[in-house]
């Protein structure tokens, strides 16, 4: 009886640990923080023992909790007093790999799925845009599912996807690396200066 | 105050043509010359230098606008910039739907018959080539029901964040069988097609056909 209970508790861990690690890494941008987030997510699961209607509900719950924990950590005093990374440090890139082989946005096949520059650019966006974009493109979630996970309206998710893509375009096409580059480009003079440079 | 007025005149000249702007500029210059002639010594030297610098900057800007011909077109500054930005995004990123339309024309040119389908199930396929009666180089494609396969099940996946779509391709029924290709567009709508191996083109304008080709010729780049 006890063994089966243990197995029951461990089952979600085996099922979701990789997914949660990837979601946590995309937010925290380093291995150790991502592992802490995964651990904390399962601690919360064991503490609250929520009842799930189906497997989708269970999966969505885990992702939502992981994203919330990431947000809490990023808001914490320690993180706010230290300099955070907008981009994923090169040393940490080897700790992240997607479990499938895919072709990147630049049109070439990636050997292990972990050399996509675009992925690192997505991770460099603000959380409001990063999470919908990451879940939509790299974890293959639908707009409805993302809306459920992030507790947002579907329209809001679509808007964030569109704006996130625009930010990426701005960043990649105009080489803007600073925060709020997209907003700067909307500014008349900012856009004109960039046009002159080009 | 004078600088503000001067700037205002130049701005007005954007819409009304350069004649009015130049007239006001000449009037201002005359006024300034007169005031100097009257022996107005109260104005500090630094201020007048700054003023002339400002004026020359405004003049340069007005000349630049004249050269680029925006005054003649009558476009306001905001509209003009929006147009440039729109043009930029259209040229660089392309348009998936536009490319797909071109693809149908291309396939029709190659002898395939194009069948447009109405919205169906979860997603809407833009159109498919009928596989019936195909011969030789005709590609065979038919619209099928979206199955929502996972990335893990696929033989090839293409993620194009900038253009906003993802493609999943899976070989079905072994070599010589069909290739199931599923597309998720930027709005999250799904569409799926089943391709037959013969007649697929590597450099097709359709991203769906290209990925189907890549699955058949595994190891080659998409």
Describe the structure.
The complex is a heterodimer of chains A (198) and B (222). Chain A is an all-alpha fold and 198 residues long. Chain A has 2 domains: 85 residues, Rna Polymerase Sigma Factor, Chain: A, CATH 1.10.1740; 99 residues, Winged helix-like DNA-binding domain superfamily/Winged helix DNA-binding domain (Arc Repressor Mutant, subunit A, Orthogonal Bundle). Chain A contains 11 helices and no strands. In chain A, helix 2 packs across helix 3 and helix 7 crosses helix 9. Chain A is globular and about 60 Å long. About 12% of the residues of chain A have low confidence. Chain B has 222 residues and is of the alpha+beta class. Chain B has 2 domains: 90 residues, no CATH class; 121 residues, no CATH class. Chain B contains 7 helices and 7 strands, in the order H-H-H-H-H-H-E-E-E-E-E-E-E-H. In chain B, strands 3-7-6-5-4 form a 5-stranded antiparallel beta sheet, with helices on one face. In chain B, helix 1 runs antiparallel to helix 2 and helix 1 runs parallel beside helix 3. The longest helix of chain B is centred in the N-terminal third of the chain and has 24 residues. The radius of gyration of chain B is 31 Å and the shape is elongated. At the A-B interface, helix 7, helix 9 and helix 11 of A face helix 5 and strand 4 of B.
């Amino acid at each position: 009886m006890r063994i089966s209970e243990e197995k029951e508790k461990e089952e979600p861990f085996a099922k979701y640990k990789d997914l949660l690690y990837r979601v946590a890494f995309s937010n925290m941008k380093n291995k150790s923080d991502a592992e802490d987030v995964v651990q904390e997510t399962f601690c919360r699961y064991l503490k609250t023992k929520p009842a799930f209607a189906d497997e989708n509900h269970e999966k969505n719950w885990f992702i939502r909790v992981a994203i919330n924990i990431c947000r809490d950590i990023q808001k914490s005093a320690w993180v706010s007093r230290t300099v955070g990374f907008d981009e994923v440090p090169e040393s940490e890139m080897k700790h992240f790999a997607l479990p499938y082989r895919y072709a990147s946005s630049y049109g070439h096949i990636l050997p292990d799925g972990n050399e996509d520059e675009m992925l690192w650019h997505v991770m460099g966006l603000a959380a409001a845009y990063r999470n919908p974009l990451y879940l939509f493109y790299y974890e293959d979630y639908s707009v409805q599912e993302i809306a459920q996970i992030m507790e947002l309206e579907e329209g809001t998710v679509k808007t964030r996807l569109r704006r996130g893509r625009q930010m990426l375009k701005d960043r990649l096409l105009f080489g803007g690396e600073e925060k709020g580059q997209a907003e700067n480009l909307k500014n008349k003079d900012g856009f004109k200066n960039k046009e002159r440079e080009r | 105050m004078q600088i503000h007025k001067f700037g205002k005149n130049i701005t007005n000249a954007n819409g009304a043509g350069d004649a009015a702007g130049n007239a006001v500029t000449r009037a201002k210059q005359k006024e300034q010359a007169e005031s100097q002639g009257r022996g107005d010594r109260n104005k500090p030297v630094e201020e007048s230098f700054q003023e002339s610098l400002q004026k020359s900057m405004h003049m340069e800007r007005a000349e630049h606008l004249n050269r680029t011909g925006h005054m003649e077109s009558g476009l306001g500054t905001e509209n003009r910039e929006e147009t440039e930005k729109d043009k930029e995004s259209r040229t660089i990123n392309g348009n998936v739907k536009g490319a797909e339309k071109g693809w149908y024309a291309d396939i029709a040119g190659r002898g395939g018959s194009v069948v447009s389908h109405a919205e169906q199930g979860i997603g809407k396929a833009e159109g498919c080539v009928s596989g019936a009666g195909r011969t030789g180089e005709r590609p065979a494609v038919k619209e099928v029901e979206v199955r929502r396969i996972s990335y893990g099940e696929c033989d090839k996946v293409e993620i194009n964040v900038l253009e906003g779509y993802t493609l999943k391709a899976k070989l079905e029924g072994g070599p010589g069988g069909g290739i199931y290709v599923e597309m998720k567009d930027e709005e999250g709508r799904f569409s799926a097609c089943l391709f037959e191996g013969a007649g697929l083109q590597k450099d097709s304008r359709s991203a769906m056909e290209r990925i189907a080709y890549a699955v058949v010729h595994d190891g080659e780049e998409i």
